[in-house]
Design brief:
Layout (H helix, E strand, L loop, with lengths): L1 E4 L5 E4 L22 H13 L1 H9 L13 E4 L8 E4 L4 E2 L1 H12 L6 E6 L6 E5 H17 L7 E5 L4 H13 L2 E4 L6 H11 L3 E5 L2 E3 L2 E3 L1 H19 L8 E5 L8 H6 L9 E3 H5 L11 E2 L3 E7 L7 E6 H15 L7 E4 L6 H13 L3 E5 L10 H9 L3 E4 L1 H8 L4 H4 L8 E5 L5 H11 L6 E4 L33 E4 L5 E2 L3 E7 L9 E2 L3 H8 L7 E9 L5 E6 L3 E4 L2 E4 H9 L4 E11 L3 E10 L7 H14 L8 E4 L13 H8 L15 H8 L7
Parallel strand pairs: 6-19, 8-9, 8-10, 9-16, 10-13, 13-14, 18-19, 18-20, 20-21, 21-22, 32-33
Antiparallel strand pairs: 1-2, 3-4, 5-15, 6-7, 11-12, 16-17, 17-26, 23-24, 23-25, 25-27, 27-28, 29-30, 31-32
Helix pairs in contact: 1-2, 3-4, 3-11, 4-5, 6-7, 10-11, 13-15
Bound molecules: adenosine-5'-monophosphate-propyl ester.
């Protein structure tokens, strides 16, 4: 990829336009929901010109305790006209858990259909869960949460690995009107504590331990440390509202029978707070009347990195999210009832929320729920699972594709992948080389590669091809989904027509868009709506080509995307400067062959402190402890000084160019001390720390 300069004058990777488009639908999609591009255009037109009718049709498939009487959609996207808000089918009453489970069991006769094939980290652990079983387990969990005092509107923190209990707990919350806040089980105790505190959760659900590959992680220990931290904060602030009353602990399947592994575990236990999941569920009824809630009641909070360093609690509400995840799942994967669908994401991220839990279940789909990692116990694990369950729709991240590419074709050739029909990707720009490998080697040139662009905030796919309909260009997320109206603006907020490059924004809401930042309307408005009044600002750069296709060029704020996970540079900098030897730190991204981007950190030490290997290890540990292993820096450079403007602002553009060894630095006249740049270049890291 060749670097191009975006409208903010930052260098971002510019996707190269391929010479060829791909349209491999012949014979594969005889019954496609959208058979060709003209059909797509017609439905898209209806969705934007007659949105009321369009969404009313979609809503008809769902169960409503009380139908909508008012408007379908009310919103304000313009900060100059008052508060920003989005309301979809306000006043209608429903329950999303009822819609994704009971409706399938009782109205669609899918009770005996498999909802999930759970495949553990170890190939010896697996379990099949039908819709009947899922419903019963969710009801049991819902009743158990009620026994603990959880009511409508309460927040429940979930810190679990990819085990069935994670799905049970989130759906149980939805059933009783509680709000789940799932924290990815790779986050540190500090990150977990921060999220529990921000959402004021009073219940935490976790597990004793988990194996990730061959690495044992004592989750309960991390959770206990988080609760300990929380107690210290409470004792200082005297705010009992921050208190977690109960911590429910799932005994992981891997440690139920394997006494050797159990012995290795030392599960910290606090009798006044901790309770085993099995003890809590013992004797609890497996029937539970759903709580009928308003369309605009909150469904969940999910934290995503913020450019100030403090994560933002993205709030999604019930009906809009339900309709949108359900509809996107159906069309984007061209879902049919005999499909076996597999999304390799973790439910701790939005991809898992929308396309492992809610979207597939709303369609009555059969999914694989995978706990493991792509290369354990061998590099063919993903391909083995595709063969084992005859997976037809497969959804993964570019970083996983790039990792597996390194092992070549041979591991795939041992398995039968002929069941595959659609290959999806998500989370970061996919480089054409990875796209083509996915297409040629995994899909054997039969399956379209569906590059879905979206965000935690968008709830579901917003730019995406449709399998039978959209001619594909490697590296492009192609066209907007139904109801989505993108625009490209320049720095002055002027809308650019035709071929253009600039800020990607959306001019109107679609049902699945976020409703706010938990407890912080000001941050919601300033992050997404203040820069360009009247538009939702994604924070991504984007190019539109002559065919109207959209190409995401990467973030244009201080965020990085490491292996498909957004991280804020400010958050990593805050972790580094907590080290007693560090005076100042600046973090930028550097391209990485597998992770897409990685962290390159510049640290300025306090007087008389020495930069050495021990310090580097301590800094890496500090970041892991504060944020989690995903944020571990790849490069740490000693920086006697940082390039700053006369007003003291760090010029990150220059640091990025040093990290990437780009010598043509352009105009440096605003720098207070240009000599610092030479010094930094002479000391730049070639090899990872
Ligand atoms: O920069 C874009 C990138 O990931 C960001 C959203 O991250 P997150 O909220 O963690 O959600 C990830 C999963 C939906 C976006 O702002 N991104 C996501 N998908 C793509 C992408 N960049 C390019 N192409 C994509 N398909």
């Amino acid at each position: 990829m060749s670097p191009v300069s975006d409208s903010t004058n930052r260098v971002v990777p510019g996707p190269q336009e391929p010479e060829k488009t791909y349209h491999p639908s012949d014979g594969l999609f005889t019954d496609a929901h959208v058979p060709d591009f003209d059909a797509y255009l017609a439905i898209y037109k209806k969705s934007t010109e007659e949105p009321e009718e369009f969404w009313a049709d979609v809503a008809q498939e769902f169960y409503w305790k009380k139908p909508r009487s008012g408007q379908m959609l009310q919103y304000n996207f313009d900060v100059n006209k008052g508060n920003i808000y989005i309301k979809f089918m306000e006043g209608a009453k429903t329950n999303i858990c009822y819609n994704v489970l009971d409706r399938n069991v009782h109205e669609r006769n899918l009770g005996e259909k498999v909802a999930y094939y759970w495949e553990g980290n170890s190939p010896n652990h697996h379990q099949t869960i039908t819709y009947n079983q899922l419903l019963r387990n969710v009801c049991r969990c819902a009743n158990a949460l009620k026994l603990l005092g959880v009511k409508k509107g309460d927040r429940v923190a979930i810190y679990l690995p990819m085990i069935p209990e994670l799905v049970y707990t989130m759906l149980a919350c939805a059933r009783i009107g509680a709000v789940h806040s799932i924290v990815f089980a790779g986050f540190s105790s500090e990150s977990l504590c921060e999220r529990i505190m921000d959402a004021q959760c009073n219940i935490l659900v976790t597990a004793d331990s988990v194996y990730r590959g061959d690495k044992l992680i004592n989750l309960k220990k991390i959770a206990s440390e988080a609760l300990e931290r929380l107690r210290i904060v409470i004792s200082v602030s005297l705010s009992m509202a921050l208190c977690v009353q109960k911590c429910v602990v799932v005994k992981h399947h891997a440690f139920r029978t394997n006494s050797d592994a159990s012995n290795k575990l030392q599960t910290p236990w606090d009798e006044s707070c901790d309770i085993w999941w099995d003890d809590l569920m013992d004797g609890v009824s497996d029937e539970c009347e759903p709580e009928w809630v308003d369309s605009e009641d909150p469904l969940f909070i999910l934290y995503t990195s913020g450019s100030t360093g403090k994560p933002k609690g993205v709030v999604h509400t019930i009906t809009g999210y339900m309709l949108y995840t359900s509809l996107t799942f159906k069309y984007v994967f061209d879902y049919h009832h005999d499909d076996v669908y597999w999304c390799t994401a973790d439910i701790g991220w939005i991809t898992g929320h929308s396309y492992i839990t809610y979207g597939p279940l709303a369609n009555g789909a059969t999914s694989v729920l995978f706990e493991g990692v792509p290369v354990y116990p061998h590099v063919g694990r993903l391909w083995e699972i595709i063969e084992k369950y005859a997976v037809s729709k497969f959804y993964t991240a570019p970083t996983a594709i790039r990792l597996l590419m390194k092992y070549g074709k041979e591991p795939l050739q041992r398995y039968d992948l002929s069941s595959l029909r659609v290959l999806g990707t998500v989370g970061e720009p996919i480089n054409p080389e990875a796209w083509l490998w996915y297409y040629d080697v995994v899909g054997q040139q039969r399956c379209p590669v569906i590059d879905t662009f979206w965000q935690t905030e968008t709830g579901g796919h917003v730019l995406t091809p449709l399998p039978a309909a959209t001619p594909l260009k490697p590296g492009s997320a192609t066209c907007p989904f139904f109801g989505v109206q993108p625009a490209i603006l320049n720095e002055h907020g002027e809308e650019l027509e035709g071929e253009a490059e600039g800020y990607l924004v959306f001019r109107k809401p679609w049902p699945g868009i976020m409703r706010g930042v938990y407890g912080n309307q000001e941050r919601f408005e300033s992050t997404y709506f203040r820069k360009f009044p009247g538009f939702y600002v994604t924070g991504d750069g984007c190019r539109r080509d002559k065919d109207g296709y959209y190409w995401i060029t990467g973030r244009i704020d201080d965020m990085l995307n490491v292996s498909g996970h957004l991280l804020s540079t400010a958050e990593v900098e805050a972790a580094l400067t907590e080290h007693p030897s560090v005076a100042e730190a600046a973090v930028v991204s550097r391209p990485h062959a597998v992770k897409g981007e990685c962290l390159y950190c510049f640290v300025t030490l306090k007087d008389h402190k020495e930069f050495n290997r021990t310090l580097m290890e301590e800094l890496k540990r500090k970041v892991r402890e504060k944020i989690g292993p995903i944020a571990t820096p790849d490069f740490i450079q000693n920086a006697p000084g940082l390039p700053k403007t006369r007003s003291g602002k760090i010029m990150r553009r220059v640091l990025r160019q040093i990290a990437r060894n780009e010598k043509d630095l352009g105009d440096l006249s605003t720098l207070a001390d240009p000599k610092v740049v030479e010094v930094l270049f002479s000391q730049r890291c070639e090899a990872a720390a």
